[in-house]
Design brief:
Jelly Rolls; 2 domains; five-stranded antiparallel sheet; 3 helices
């Protein structure tokens, strides 16, 4: 009779045999979230982000996660914007702060947020997210870099600007932050 290898798959990954787990399965010196397989199924994500001087993590949102940012080195200007207040007479509100080593900042789930290194030196942060499947939508990419451009009339009306400005923005290089 042939032997059968049984494996448990969770979120597309093979789980390690519980009898073979050691402390080293939970220790990750100098690695990023893609290299942290043991976070699979724990409902969290973790990432290290390195910023060059004046580096930017552009406005984006995580539709399925709150983000907690911890500054290890450098100086970051960070913020998030509220969205669509119930009262139509109230504008969206921006919350910003300049962060220094040891500071912690929380970006609520689903709200557009950003981080900008305002220092002349590199900055390093760790970001913990409350989901293993956070999702990310980079605002400029979504609006101005779709493979079939959004109709010019739609964008000129939505942004209340001249069509030439929209064409200019659509011609720019918009990077992914994934």
């Amino acid at each position: 009779m042939a032997s059968v290898l049984l494996a448990v798959f969770v979120n597309g990954k093979i789980c390690k045999d519980p009898n073979m787990i050691s402390v080293d399965d939970f220790f990750f010196p100098g690695h990023t979230c893609d290299q942290l397989p043991r976070l699979n199924t724990l409902g969290i994500s973790l990432v290290r982000i390195d910023y060059a001087p004046y580096g930017l993590n552009p406005p984006h949102t995580h539709p399925r996660a709150t983000e907690v940012l911890v500054v290890v080195e450098g100086t970051l200007y960070v913020g998030f914007v509220t969205s669509n207040p119930a009262d139509p007479n109230v504008k969206n509100k921006i919350f910003t702060k300049t962060l220094y080593p040891g500071d912690v900042f929380v970006f609520p789930e689903g709200l557009i947020h950003f981080q900008f290194n305002v220092g002349k030196t590199n900055a390093v942060v760790f970001a913990g997210l409350s989901s293993q499947n956070t999702g990310v939508i980079t605002i400029a990419n979504a609006v101005f870099r779709s493979d079939q451009p959004i109709n010019l009339d739609v964008l000129t009306k939505a942004f209340q600007v001249d069509a030439n400005i929209i064409k200019y923005l659509q011609a720019q290089f918009w990077w992914n932050i994934d």
